[in-house]
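dumping these here so i dont lose them again. two proteins, back to back, each one seq then C-alpha cells. dont judge the mess
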Amino acid sequence: MGVVAFDVWAADKGIAKSFDLKFLQDRVIGIDATYWIHGLNKDPLLSALGGPPLAFESTVISAVKYLQDAGLKLHFVFNGLDSGVGSDPVISSARAAQLDSEAFTLYETEQGKQARDVFMASGHWYPSALSEILKRILHEQGVPFTVAPYSALAQLVYYEKHPSQFIDAVYGPSELFCFGIDKLIIKFEIANDSQNLGEKNKMESPILELSKFQWIDRRDCLAALGSIPLNVFIDSLMLAGSGLLPGFPPLENETVYRKPYTMRNVVEMIISCGGSVARLCAQYSTDPAVKGIYLEQYKRALTRIRHHVVMTDEGDVEILDKDHAPDDAHECVGLRLPEELYMYLSRGMLRPKILNWLTSGKISIIQPLAGGDGRPYQNLVKVQLDPLRRQALSLLTEPIHRYYHSRDITTNFWFDPTYEGKFNMRDVSYPRDLLSKWNVKNNLIAGYSTEDLPAGTLSFAILSLENPEFAAKTVTQKPKTGQELLKHRDEILANAVWRLLQLRGYLNEQHQLTEWGKVLEAVWSASGTRRDEEEAALIAVELMRFELINPDTMFLGYGGAPGNGSDIDKRNAMLVSRVACLGKIRHSAKGYSGPLSRHMLAYHSIVSSVHASLRDLLEMIVTAMFLEGLVDRDRNDWADISLGLPFYQEQSCALGVLTMHFLDDLCNYPDPTSESTRAEVKKKGQEWIMHGDFSGSLDDAFRIWDAVFQGVKAAGNKLKDTEIWDEVDTWLSRRK
C-alpha cells in the first residue's frame, strides 16, 4: 500500500505532523478499508493455515472501539471493481506460494523462528478476502461502510471534496495525493495501556489525553521537494510506482539509480525533462519497457485519476468531469455495468469477483498457498469447477443488457500459461427452467421452520423437503404483475439455497431429493447444527462427487503427512484428517501457535476452491432474483442478505492439522487405543495450542467424520472403495 518511495522519504524527512486525537472529536473520518487492514497486527502463521486470522475480529473491534471512544465517527470505504491496474495476481500469488514453500522447508527442518519470519513475509491472505470479513464485523458493530464502484481512493476524495463534505478527513495511503487531496491522516497512535485507563473525567479521558494522530499536508511536501509544481508532485508519485501505475522502468535499472531509488530521484528525473512525462519517455525510448508502452500506461492512469468513477450523493454512478473526459475513458476504467449492480455492490450484498470476470473478460485462476503442484487440485480448478464458473456468469448476464450475452471470457491458469479456456456467453445455457419454480412465500416457509431448523439454512432446505406435502407446495410460479414479490429476508435466503441445491443436482424438477440429495440428507441428519458444520456437510458431498475425499496420494513431495505407525495407520489418519479439514478449530481470539502441515494446507486448497465456487453461485442466484424482479427492492437489509447466505467465510486447515497430529502421536505408544494413552496425548495436545480447546476441537472433528461416514454409507456404490471407509471408521472408533 502507498507509494513506497514517498513513504520512506516522508518518514526520513519527518514530514508528518502529530496532533492530539481529541482534535478529531465529533469529526467523520473516511477510512480506506484496504489501508486499514494493512495497518493491523499480522498473524505470522496465517499463510501456513489458510482461512481468516484467528485474532482478526477482536483486533478490529478493539481498534474501532478505541477511535469511537475518542469521539471519532468512522465511515469505511472498500474497493469495488478492478480497473486493470495494480500487481498481477498470478505473479503475486506465485511469489507468495514460493515463500510459503521455503517457510515449510525451514519448519520441517526445525528452524521454527526462521520459518515464522518467512511465513510472515508471504502475506498471501489477500485484502479482498479480509475485506469481506471486515464488512461483516463493521455491520455487526453498526459502523457504516460503502463499497466504491471502482477505487475506494476516488470515492473518499469525492466525499471529502463534496460541498456537503460528507467526511471531514481521510485516513489512507499516499496514493490519495494523486487524486488531489490536500491533507491525509496516515496513522492513529492510540494510548490503550490499561495502567492509564483509570477513573477520570469522561470529557477528558486518558485515551484522549494520550492518543495522537499523524497527518501529512501536501503543501509541506511540495516545499520540502524544492517548491515543485503540483503537477510534478503528482507525476512523481505516479512514476515512483504504486497500485495506480507501475514504477518508471529506468528507476529499477541499477546502472541509472542505485537501489532503492528515492522520491528525490523521481522528482529530479521529471524536472530534468521540463516536467514532461512525454519527454521523459522519449529520452528513455531505447528501453524496451518504456518504448511505446509506458507513456500509454501513464496516460491511462491519469485518465482514471482525473475522470474516476464514483457513486454520487444521489446514488448515481458517474465519471467525474465527464464533459472533459476522452471518448475512450471506459477503456481506462472498465466496462459500464447496470446501475442496479453498482448499488448491490455498494451496500455489501454483492462481492466484486464475478462482476470483474464479466467486465474484464478474464478469469485468472491463481496459485494457492500449497497444493498447486498436485494433479487432483489442478484438475479440480481447471475442469471440475469450470461449469460452476460458467453457470455463475450466466446467472449474472442473462437478466442484463444483451451486449453481455455475447461477451467472450478467457480463463487462464497459473500452471498452464499457454492454455486459454475461451468461451462465449451465448454458448452458456441459462438454467431458467430449473430455477423458475422457486418462489416460495414466507407464509409457507414459516410453517415448517423451527428454532432448531431456521429458514434460510442449508439443513432446512433439504430436511424440509422430506415432507412430500411441503415439497409439492414449493413448486411455485414467478409472480405476475401486481402480485406480491419475495420480501422477507428468510424468503430470499430459503429460495436462494433451494435454487443452489437444484443447480447442483440435489433436487429434481418436482423439488424432491435426488439420490445425491438423499446422501446430503444423511450427512446433515448426523451433523451438528452450527453454520460451519452445515457448510462442511455440503462441501463433503461435493468432494465425494469430485472423488476428492479419499486417502490417495495427492501431493507428492509435500511434508506434514502422517508418519507414524503402519501404512494402514498412516492411510487411516490421512483420511480422517482430510475430513477434519472441513471443520473449524475451537480457538480464542489470539494468534495460532500450534503444529503445521503443508500436506493439510494443500488439501485445504481443494476445500477452499469448492467453498468459493458455491459462494459465487449463491451470490449470483440472489443477484439474478433481484435483476429479474422477483424480489422487493424497497429495503435496507442488503448486508444482512449477504451475511445470511451460506459460505460467507471459509475455515483454516487447523482442525485437520490437530487431528492428524493426535492420531499420528497415538502410534508412538505401545497401546494407541487405551484410555490412558488417549488421555495423555490429549493433554499433550492442549500444550500444542495454548489458546485453543484441543479436546473440544477433536470432538468436533470426530463428529464431522461420523456425519460424513453416514453420507458414504448412503452413497453406496456411487463411491469407490467404500470398504476403506468401513475399515477407517472401525479403526477410529477405538481412538476417539
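---- next one ----
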Amino acid sequence: MVAFIEVENLTVSYGETVAIHDISFQLEPGVIGLIGPNGAGKTTLIRTFLGFIRPVKGKIVISGLSLPQEILKVRAIVGHMPEREVVSPKVTAVSFLVYCGRLVGMSYVDALERSHEVLNYVGLQEARYRPMQTYSTGMLQRVKLAQAILHDPKILILDEPTNGLDPDGRLEMLQLIREISEQRGVTTILSTHLLPDVQNLCSQIVVLKKGKLVYCGDLQSLIDSKVNHYEVSVQPPMEPFKEELEKIGIKFQELPQEVLSLQLPESIPQQEIFRCAQRAGTIIRSFMPAGGSLAELFQSKLDKEEVS
C-alpha cells in the first residue's frame, strides 16, 4: 500500500532548542496513534503537519502534497481537533460552526447546511441552538470534533479527544472516531496519553521520545513481539543458569525476586530453557509467557531506547 504520510529526515527547532531530531517514517491510511511522554515532540510534530512551524530540514508529504510548499492545499484536506478549548462560550454551536465553515471558504448556505449535518452526526442536534457555555465537557469535545470534520477532510488530527470525559462519554467518542475512519475513509492521527484508546482504535503507532523516533509501525506487530518472551523464576544461585543462557544466545533481563525475563530467538525452542537449567543445576520454580499490556510494551520500548 502506498504511504499516505511520508516524513524524511525531519528536524524542527525552537531557536537553539531542537524539538525533533532527524526522524523518518512512513504511514499507511488508517488510525494512527501518536504517543510519547511529555516533551517527546508530539505537539511539535502536529504543528509542523499543520504548517504552523517550518522545519529546519527534512521532507513531509501528506496525501501526495509536500510541506511547506503546498501548505494551503494540505490545510484544505486536514481537520484538526485541538486539545485546548477553541469555542466561544456565549455562541451557539451552529453559529460557531458556520463561522468555521466560512473561514475555510464555504458559502454561508453551504456552511449552515453542513453545520446542521455534522452536529447531528456527533449527537448534538438537540443542543445546537444553546449557548456553548451551557455544554458539558463531553458536549464541548463533540463540538470540536464537529468543526474538525466540517469541511469533509481526508485526514483528521485529534489531540487528546477523550480528555476529561467520563467512561460512557469516552466510549462514545471512540466509537465516533472509529466510524469516521472506517465509514468515511478518513485517515486519523490520534495523539493521546491514554494507551487503552490507542489499543482500542489504532492499527499503526508512532512513538517519540525526546524528539527522536523510538518506534513506527504496526501496533499488532509490537504486541506480537512479546510472543517469544518468558518470565522464569529460579532458585538461587542464578549465575550458572545465566551463563548457560548466554552460551546459546538467549537474551535476558534480571528482575527482582530471582526472576529472569527471557527473549527467545525464533530458532530456539522453549525447551532449551529447561535444558540450560539442567546443565546449570538450577531449579526452575515457575515458567510462564511474559504478559504485556500496551503500557508495559510502550515503557519497555522507551526504557530500551538510548536517547541523549
